[in-house]
Amino acid sequence: MTLQAGTPAATTDQVEAADASAQGGANTLAAKIANGARLTRADGLQLYESVDLLELGEWARERAATLSGDGIFTNVNCHINLTNVCKASCSYCGFSRKEGEADAYVLTAEAIADRARAARAQGVTEFHLVGGLHPTLPLSYFLDAFRLLASEVPDASIKAFTAVEVDFYAERDGRAVADVLADLADAGVVSITGGGAEIFEPSVRRRVVGHNVTWERWAAVHRAAHEIGMRTSATMLYGHIESPADRVDHVLRLRELQDETGGFDVFVPLRFQPQARLADRPAPTGVEALRVFAASRLLLDNVPHIKVFSVMHGPSLSQLALDFGADDIEGTIAEYEITEDLTGMSATAQPSEKRDTAENDAAENDTSGEGCFGGPASGGAIVPDGMTAADLIRREFATLIGETGRRPLERDTGYNVSAATSGAPETATTTPAASATAAPSASGEAA
User: Fold this and answer.
1) 32-70: pLDDT as tens digits
2) Per-residue b/e over 320-357, b at no fewer than 16 CB within 10 Å?
3) CATH number at 66-436
4) Which of 1, 195, 365, 382 has a CA 20 to 30 Å removed from the CA of 281?
């Protein structure tokens, strides 16, 4: 039984029962995949526990090819962390500070706009802005910053806040989630991000996160965003204390929500980086990472894209992920400080503005925009004369993707191909993903 986005939501148990009836229990997992049958929870566990890795990769690669052909998507973007003050104390986070700590900071709107102008001049087309759960900073601070950024770089897209942030500020201020989302949209935000998902299984989630936003509340924010036309993304933090069963559970929850709303454009597995209270745990292996990408691609039959976040996976493993179900690669970011860079890749090309006093003042004088860039090679490469940092990043990604035999396609936030990256055929102008799924064709959002 294959369900498409936009059909009435069914519970996982209902889907499994229908599958068991339709398949008669006789078909092998390989046959189900070949026939396009929806996979069950038991099938998902089998993908993790008993399927040969190379066979799994072949299945996932074929599934991705039906959605995106031989194209691999990427875009030139800039991440800016607005503040590191956070009420939560998540066990994996090495970034947050409490209000009043010596190295706590809040960026001024002017510093954000200055960096955005410089980055846009360098070729950035998307800005990704998040912060923490600040206990006292008014929501108007963020809205003013978004409005200023939108006015300074009107031809770039703004993605801001995780569902956890939206939920937090709504609850703190006694407002409806829908009203906070409407305020964000009015300020120029085109989508919320997919962060804050971590892992949804309740007992594991309570041990990992330091806030009270459950799966139900996370889903409610994204459901409300989809209702007002925002296309969003979803993530999963893997490789810490969760089990394969927890990963399957996480993805199936997202699949059911996608059946209901059709509003997710991309799923992004995030590789755990050992730090903070989980510093003694090993990072997930490359084999484990590839199995996560492949299993996710096969289980999430109604989400068009799977993205590999190269800052967390490194260039070589990211390249391999493109053969295990991923069809989108991101690494052109700045200030990704939620987890440290332990992969040999740099999230920033140079130290960036992060303080609300003297260091913020200095940052406001930085007009290079280079703090927003860190490509798929080792971070902060010297930009050759005659090229912008964005040009260098495009060339690096074109090489990385081209080596896999695929076409690099530069996209906008909605997965519309705005330009063919160096080396891609000039005729590549659209993604087939929209027609390959039953999800609404409205413009979508990346993670």
Assistant:
1) 999 999 999 999 999 999 999 999 999 999 999 999 999
2) bbbbbbbbbbbbbbbbbbbbebebebbbbbeebbbbbe
3) 3.20.20.70
4) 195
